[in-house]
Amino acid sequence: MIAAVVGPSGAGKDTLIEGALAAWPSLRLARRVITRPTEAGGEDFDGVTPDAFARMQRDGLFALDWQAHGLCYGIPRDQLTGDGPVIFNGSRAALPQAVARLPGLRVVLVTAPTALLARRLAARGRETEDDIAARLDRAGFALPPGIAHVTVVNDASPEQGIARLLAALQPDRVLR
């Protein structure tokens, strides 16, 4: 299984993914490559320059790539191979490409109320007020038509959000 976790900035995707990885030992993270300095913090990613990203793109190293918020993002092909289930933090806008390139892709939309998104974005301290406003404007961006998905509302404790994500990833598993 390959799963893409998508949703607005501040929904808690990285927190839920980190918790799911801790709770499900065979689940693997596909680390994103981003044209942002690695020391910018937040998620676990590989930061590269725009030139390095373009070279990786030309060399066909990405299974999936997209642009958002003035940055380039890519999921390396080699991160999706091997045994066991794989999860990655994706983009709603890139889902048509992802579904076409990754047959059987499981899509999980993580969301939260707008006021909570705003508080989380402000707390992480990476964006200006204008950046936060722009991200909140995009928070209601609908998934492209025809994309099958499960929605996880992350509006409670991290533990509850992680349990909801795990249930979405493993719908046949009985949670106790």
TrEMBL record:
KW Secreted (keyword) present: no
SUPFAM superfamilies the record matches: P-loop containing nucleoside triphosphate hydrolases
PANTHER family noted in UniProt: GUANYLATE KINASE-RELATED (PTHR23117), RIBOSE 1,5-BISPHOSPHATE PHOSPHOKINASE PHNN (PTHR23117:SF8)
Domain Guanylate kinase/L-type calcium channel beta subunit: 1-173
GO biological process, one term: 5-phosphoribose 1-diphosphate biosynthetic process
Keyword check for ATP-binding: yes
Cellular component, GO annotation: cytosol
Record EC number: 2.7.4.23
Reactions that this protein is recorded to catalyse: alpha-D-ribose 1,5-bisphosphate + ATP = 5-phospho-alpha-D-ribose 1-diphosphate + ADP
Catalytic class of the enzyme: transferase
The entry's keywords: ATP-binding, Kinase, Nucleotide-binding, Transferase
Residues given in the record as ATP binding sites: G7, P8, S9, G10, A11, G12, K13, D14
Protein name per UniProt: Ribose 1,5-bisphosphate phosphokinase PhnN
MF-aspect GO terms: ATP binding; ribose 1,5-bisphosphate phosphokinase activity
Pathway membership, UniProt: Metabolic intermediate biosynthesis; 5-phospho-alpha-D-ribose 1-diphosphate biosynthesis; 5-phospho-alpha-D-ribose 1-diphosphate from D-ribose 5-phosphate (route II): step 3/3
Family: Belongs to the ribose 1,5-bisphosphokinase family.
The organism of origin for this protein: Paracoccus liaowanqingii
Function statement: Catalyzes the phosphorylation of ribose 1,5-bisphosphate to 5-phospho-D-ribosyl alpha-1-diphosphate (PRPP).
